[in-house]
Specification:
Number of helices: 12
Bound molecules: zinc ion
Helix content: 55-70%
Distance between the termini: 48 Å
Number of domains: 1
């Protein structure tokens, strides 16, 4: 396949011992996008136009804020806030109409103000950037599953997926695979996922047993990081902060 730009990272992800290789890719893309936003993107007018308009979600603001480069962050915030201010001005017409008709529509009807807040609260230039590349990875994942036996074996012997990406694969299998191939694929990953969830469940149980003083000499084994792996299996990767 020509598109080594996608196949190489997918193969690399499958060589990593992780609970979800798709999360591994997504996390990498997210980290690269954060670095890019505070670095090279400062000189990229197209990206700046997009980030001024869309802004970022809470998760990505938090990641941007955790980095050292506060000047880049402040410059991004400054121009985004200018854009927000202009965009807010366009809503003033909604208040100028004394009938208030447009302002207080029934809850089932959308109005300009609701639309504005919906858009403002849900748009994020980094989410969009990551999602766009992840869609390509999903497409290439199915191409490789059908055409690359070695890759297929890697998937079969992996630890499965987080439930989020498990769902994405379910949604897309029929789009990218022939009917029978899709049924085979879903059967394989469904059974794998059940086994992998049971494996983590057993680790979680062992983790709880370690808190009983009678088991203080019991080896942790693979149970030592069971809570974080269980969360990552259930919801996708998380950004772990050091606890107190
Ligand atoms: Zn995942
Ligand atoms: Zn985001």
């Amino acid at each position: 396949m020509k598109e080594k730009i996608y196949t190489i990272p997918l193969n690399e992800a499958y060589e990593t011992d992780c609970e979800c290789p798709l999360c591994f890719l997504e996390k990498k893309l997210e980290e690269e996008a954060i670095e890019y936003t505070l670095g090279a993107a400062m000189m990229e007018p197209d990206f700046r136009i997009e980030s001024n308009e869309k802004g970022f979600c809470k998760n990505h603001y938090s990641m941007l804020f955790s980095k050292q480069n506060k000047l880049s962050l402040a410059l991004i915030l400054e121009t985004h806030m200018e854009e927000i201010s202009k965009s807010l001005d366009s809503l003033s017409k909604e208040f100028e109409n004394p009938s208030q008709k447009r302002l207080f529509k029934k809850s089932s009807e959308s109005n300009k103000i609701d639309d504005w807040f919906d858009k403002n609260n849900s748009s994020c230039v980094i989410c969009d950037k990551v999602e766009k590349t992840m869609k390509r990875y999903i497409e290439v994942f199915f191409y490789m599953w059908s055409h690359d036996k070695e890759f297929k074996n890697k998937v079969i012997s992996s630890k499965g997926f987080c439930l989020y990406h498990f769902g994405i694969l379910f949604e897309n299998a029929q789009k990218y695979l022939k009917k029978n191939d899709a049924a085979d694929f879903l059967n394989i990953i469904y059974n794998k996922e059940k086994d992998e969830l049971m494996r983590i469940n057993e680790d979680i149980h062992k983790f709880t047993l370690k808190f009983d003083y009678r088991n203080k000499d019991m080896e942790w084994g693979t149970a030592i990081d069971a809570p974080v792996r269980a969360i990552e299996k259930l919801s996708g990767y998380i950004h772990i902060k050091n606890s107190d």
